[in-house]
Amino acid sequence: MQTVYLDNNATSAIAPEVREAMLPYFSEFYGNPSSMYTFGGIVGKKVAEAREQVASLFHADASEILFTSCGSESDNTAIWSAIMTQPEKRHIVTSCVEHPAILNVVEYWEHQGYRVTRVPVDDLGRMDLDAYAAALTADTALVSVMFANNETGNLFPIARMAEMAKEKGILFHTDAVQAAGKIDIDLTRLPIDMLSVSGHKLHAPKGIGVLYIRKGIIFRPFLRGGHQERGRRAGTENVPYIVGMGVAADSAVRNMGEEQTRVAALRDRLESGLLASIPQSRVNGDPEHRLPNTTNISFKNVEGEAILLMLDRLGICASSGSACTSGSLEPSHVLRAMQVPFNYAHGSVRLSLSRYSTAAEIDYVLKELPPVIATLRKLSPFKD
Ligand code: PLP
What we know:
Radius of gyration: 21 Å
Structural class: alpha/beta
Helix content: 40-55%
CATH superfamily of the largest domain: Type I PLP-dependent aspartate aminotransferase-like (Major domain)
Shape: globular
CATH architecture of the largest domain: 3-Layer(aba) Sandwich
Strand order of the largest sheet: 2-8-7-6-5-3-4
Largest sheet: 7 strands, mixed
Order of helices and strands: EHHEHEHEHEHEEEHHEEHEEEEHHEH
CATH class of the largest domain: Alpha Beta
Bound molecules: pyridoxal-5'-phosphate
Number of strands: 15
């Protein structure tokens, strides 16, 4: 049975060129990039090249790129640094639809006595900018709002939000884990101070991340020890993964425009085909401001988890918008924040494409998903 992988917001395939570029750094080039001799220097040069490649993805300077172990570490580091460098400020602003890599970290700081404002969203998942403006105070140490939402693909007005924070002299961080490599992010135009990236969402391996730190921002390391990463993160560099991250960023720079037009067309065909063939279905999210690869669709009166199990038998990989909490299926915090009606929120499925998604795969899902929903509706205790 073929695998139709439509869960690229969870993780993505390692690109062949990324894998090829990494391999020599697992074997012949194992030197330490900090060593003085040539054998280490070769490796050090490759790390520098990868840093340049990642910087290019964001129109940034290589000195602004810090390699970390994952998106979660980048998020933790950004929040940590903002707090440590401004001990007098005791307030954090975020949104209620962030990934747990932010939500659980700000909750930790809340338990340490910080005040946290979580900006709400409307029924399309759009940020409430009035609530956001009202939240920014002289006591705010940091704003952390995601660039794109992992569940709905919604893109937030980050340029405007960053400007509003800057007007009040507040540090602005964005979790761009889902946006990086999928849309152009030009940090010469956006007043963002820190930005988090994760390799495995853009065809690099799992276990490599990036934190962009704008030049001039006062920074405190999260991991202390050796002087790697110019004293900003201790630990001998994960050279093969850094090399892979560089090549993945380079591929994204080269292919983004063309690739994302193709991916968006496939996503739109999938979405409109499902809406047309499955009654009582709806899209969750902001149709005008979305990542090109993501759709989140709800089917009334069915369980998302049941849909996933049946799709799995057909070789189709997707995610649902509900999570098992203490034995019962709860709609995700994102769908709850958007007040998606209960009987729709439970039957939500996220389908996320990549450059490797094909028209044949979309046709297969368009053929197989409608009968799955029809079967589950017959079994469902919920009827209209
Ligand atoms: N932020 C967002 C928006 C994500 O979607 C994810 C992963 O799903 C993360 C952060 C965490 O990234 P990582 O798995 O690299 O820690």
